[in-house]
Amino acid sequence: MSGTRQATGPPRPDRTTTPPATAAPNRPTRPVTAVAYPHSRFAPVAGVEVHHEVHGPIDAPAVLLSHHFYGSTRTWRHVTADLADDHRAVAFDRPGFGLTERPARTGRRTAEVSPYRRTTAARIGWGLLDHLDVDRAVLIGSSAGGTNVLEMYRRQPDRVRALVLLSPAITGDVGPPGPLRRPLRSAPARAAGAGLVRRLARDVDVERISRSWFDPQRATPEDAEPYQRMLRVDGWDQGLWDAITAERPPDLRDVVRSVDVPTLVVTGDHDRVVAPHLSRATAEAIPDARFVVIEDCGHTPQEERPAALLAVVRDFLDELPT
Questions:
Q1: Phi, psi of 253 (to 5 degrees)
Q2: Mean of the per-residue pLDDT values for the chain?
Q3: 95 lies in which domain range?
């Protein structure tokens, strides 16, 4: 595939031996390709080097996975490993997260071309699928990733076979109130904001990343590793602040009401980030959407209860028209 670079490296360690990457915020950072995984790929899309992974047969039905806030390609690893048996599973890092490049803000970039806006992330999702010669796909999004795939549906609904929304963030996201976001994009505020996220990053460990889980005791160092690795990427602190303050919180109720493809909405019964009744309301707003609650689960079933999530998703995918 022209323009795609596959990272090389040692064999991937198994679950019991994966060492956690250091979370020290003052450790020198490196280019994204220098901290990539063995299966990492990078492709230039919309002016950004986009980190992604592709698993499964090239001619199989495509599934695109979009992560939650502060998540990444690797937080889908249990899901992609299973789906790759009979699907072409594509997971990617949106700008500001994972190992996707954090471009420096130069000059007066217009709102439309800012890599950290939702419209740009949607263009990147479609641009990556174009790069991989994928015409139509099932779009799977978790929390803010649900926002992303709904924005993708808004732009090109005819290319979407179906939607899977895991506790989608329909009318809000992480960050300051909407009216504050524009002043927080000023140069002094951006410098201060980058310092703030560096201080918060000191606590990115197993306990921190599992706070949104139903049972934090299930989390392992391997679960924390993707969150820690992104702290080693050049510009991660400024990129995260820019992602938080790029625009006003979303309101996708109009998109939800327009959805006209098979849709599955999933929530954990102990989701404290997007309450289950909000996900139920989203499902009820979509004609014929299926709503499933996973028991003993928090906000990210793909991490905490991947087997239970896969059982639900596979039943849904198996019923889609070919």
A1: -60, -35
A2: 89
A3: 5-13+42-318
